[in-house]
Amino acid sequence: MMLTMMLTTFYCLFNLAISSSFAYPDAHLVPAVAFSFAADYGTVALHLTNDSSVSLAKLAGTPGYKTFMRREQALPPDSWFCSIWGTCARNPDIDAANAMINALKSSAEEYFGTTFCFVSIAVPDARQTNYQREIFEAAINASGLRQPFSTQSAAKQAVFANQPEDIDMIPDQQIALAIEYSRAGLNLELFCDDGGILDSLRIDHNLGLGADDPDRAHWNAVLSALERISKPPFPNCPSWDSTVHKKINYIVLYGDSVKNTELLRVVARAVGEEVVAEARWWEPEFGIALSLARTSYSVQNSNDFEDRPAFGCRWRSGLYSGTAEL
Question: Secretion signal: which residues (predicted)?
Fold first, then answer.
């Protein structure tokens, strides 16, 4: 009899804990955290419950992190033999991603004074088969965090960050070019922008074509890359009949070296001086994380948000108790 009562009590408490760990209190807002991973560094930004934003930290990557971010192919998998005997070497790319994520996570926890459960992330290449994306997503889960929505393209998020907040102010049927120029490389992505709905048309990543080596051959290579991606006719956009007569309407610049005067001169040669004169470059280093945190804040505090945190995360955090004021 006593054993039955104990088991019944345990079952009730367990189910109560499960239900409480996955349900947010009504009308309780929670802040949002976002990480953006560049080739040489990572940034973390917050969006708080008073609707303000914080550019929290920019952390330089270790040599291992920089090697990982430049790797074009996945490291070969361990053999089944070492798995059986437990002799497999540590994967340096996983270690590098874990170290960066834990450092960014610690910055946010120090600011909040407590732990948090969700983080949104952006990477240079967010296509499903991208190696860095896979490693970062696994490392996020291993850290005890969860993503409120899928990993985002840094270029696409940079475009979002530079659009008007009022969606009715965004024209239909535009062509946008996102240009990341950093010490590490040149990343280009061409988009259809149909009233704020973005579809990728072309992608060109040029690691090694960065600001650390700005000689004449370098600038000729930058110009060639810009001319390739901006050359019409463009691929058709999903919601348009044709892009045959279209040209690039605007450019978005981001990255740690994007205000280089020689870069702007070369971009003008490729897309026109009038386009460069109207270039958008709000917060070139933190804009992606800030925009992503704002989006994540809206998603997490909507009535439709049902994603579950890691088991026990809400118990340990002071952000989900209904008394947090961040």
Answer: 1-23
